[in-house]
Amino acid sequence: MKVITLHHPHNVAENDLPKISIALGFFDGVHLGHQQVIQNAVDHAKLNGLKSGVMTFNPHPSVVLSNKKTEVDYLTSVDRKLELFEKLGVDYTFVVRFTSSFAGLDPQQFVDQYLLPLNVVHVTAGFDYTYGKFGRGTMETLPFHSRNRFTSTIVGEMSDDREKISSTRIRQTLHQGKVDEARKLLGYPYQLEGTVIHGDKRGRKIGFPTANIEINSQMLIPATGVYAVRLWVFDQWVDGVCNVGYKPTFKSPDVKELTVEVHLFDFNQNVYGENVLLEWHLRIRSERKFNGIEELVAQIELDKTKALAYFSQL
Q1: Cα–Cα distance measured from residue 306 to residue 167, given in angstroms and rounded to the nearest whole number
Q2: pLDDT at residue number 273
Q3: What is the dihedral of CA 33, 38, 39, 42, to 10 degrees?
Q4: Beta carbons within 8 Å of 271's beta carbon, 6+ residues apart
Q5: Is residue 114 within a helix (H) or strand (E), and if so which, with residue range?
Q6: Which residues pair with 51 in a beta bridge?
Q7: Counting C-beta atoms within 10 Å of the first and last residue's C-beta, which end of the chain has fewer, N or C?
Q8: HSE (side-chain half, CA atoms, 13 Å) at 308
Q9: Statement: residue 247 has pLDDT above 80
Q10: pLDDT tens-digit profile of 26-81?
C-alpha cells in the first residue's frame, strides 16, 4: 500500500496517479461500519480494473474546528489505521492534514482540489459523510459537485441488535471497561500501541513481575480495572493480565498517575524499551484497595486463574 500525505495546498496532479475507487471518512477505530465502506471501495476497484484508495484526516476535525481546547480519545493512531487499511486490501491511502486552511474549503473546492486531482473515478462513503466548510457537502450533493466526472456509492447505517455502530459508541463502551463489547463493534479486539518503561518494580517483589506500558496520552485507555490481555512482543502474542489504575494499595488517593501494567504468563524475557501492541479481551474486575500484600497477592492469583480460563476457551 502506498501512503501519500497531503498538506493544503498540495501539488499532486491527476496524471500522477492511476484511476482510483476511493473511500472517504475519518475511520477512527476502523470498526465494522468503516470496514463495510472500505470493502465496498475495494470491491468496486477490483470489478472495474481500478486501484482502491482511502482518504482519511489527521488530526480529528474537532481539534481544529472547536473554539475550545479539544482533546480526542483516539481509538487508533494513524499508523495503526494504515495497518488496518492495508489488511483490507487498499492500494493507496491519502492522509490529509486537517488544518484551518483545509477546513475553509467550500464543498466544490474540496472536490476540485482533493478528489479530481487524485484521479478519483468512484467515491464510497457512509450515508452521514459530509465535506467542505461547515460540512455543507453531503453524499446527496456529491454528484452535482463532481460534474459527473466520477460516480459514487452511499453505504447505509450498520447496526447491531441495539443501535448504530459508531466510533462514539465504541468510546463509550471502552470508558465503561466493556472491552468484550467493543470487540464485537470493531470486529477485532481493541488494541493500543505502547512502549515498555521502568516502573516501581513492586510486582517483581511480590512474585508477579509486570511490564509497565507507556501509551500515547491521546489514545483511549479503557476504564480502570483488571483485564485479560495479550501482548505482542518479540513477534509473538503472550497472554497476561493487565491492571489499569492508580495503585490505591500503595499510593495516596491524591496521586493521580494512571498506570498500565501487564503480568505475562510463562514469559521471563527482558522487554524494557520494546514497542508493543496491547490487545484487550475481557474486564475481570474493577480496581480496589487491598488490606495488605497478602490480600493483594491472593486476588492477583484469582485474576490470573480467570484470565487463563478465558484464554483456554479461545
Answers
A1: 29
A2: 96
A3: 170
A4: 196, 211, 233, 234
A5: helix 107-114
A6: 20
A7: C
A8: 10
A9: no
A10: 999 999 999 999 999 999 999 999 999 999 999 998 888 877 766 789 999 999 99
pLDDT above 70: percentage of residues in the chain: 94
Q: Find all residues with CB under 8 Å of 78, minimum gap 6, and list them.
A: 56, 58, 95
Among residues 64, 162, 148, the alpha carbon closest in space to that of 104 is found at 64
- How far is Cα 245 from Cα 258, in angstroms, rounded to an integer? 5
More confidently predicted of 249 and 264: 264
The DSSP element (H or E) to which 80 belongs, if any, is helix 78-87
Amino acid identity at 237: W
Length of the chain: 314
pTM for this entry = 0.92
Higher pLDDT among residues 203 and 309, named by residue: 309
CB 123 within 8 A of CB 142: yes
Please, what's the largest Cα pairwise distance for the chain?
Answer: 72
Confirm if 41 and 21 have CB atoms less than 8 A apart: yes
Q: State which amino acid sits at residue 245.
A: G
Read off the amino acid at residue 55.
M
For residues 289 and 214, what is the distance between their CA atoms, to the nearest angstrom? Answer: 23
Q: What is the mean pLDDT of residues 282-301?
A: 89
- Domains (ranges, CATH) in the chain? 2-155 (3.40.50.620), 178-312 (2.40.30.30)
Alpha helices in 115-187 (DSSP H): 142-146, 167-175, 179-186
Nearest to 196 by CA among 279, 273, 108: 273
pLDDT value, residue 291:
80
Does residue 237 contact residue 284 with C-beta atoms inside 8 Å? no
Determine the Cα–Cα distance for residues 77 and 278; give it in Å rounded to an integer: 13
Are the CB atoms for 240 and 263 separated by under 8 Å?
yes
Band (204; pLDDT cuts 50, 70, 90): low
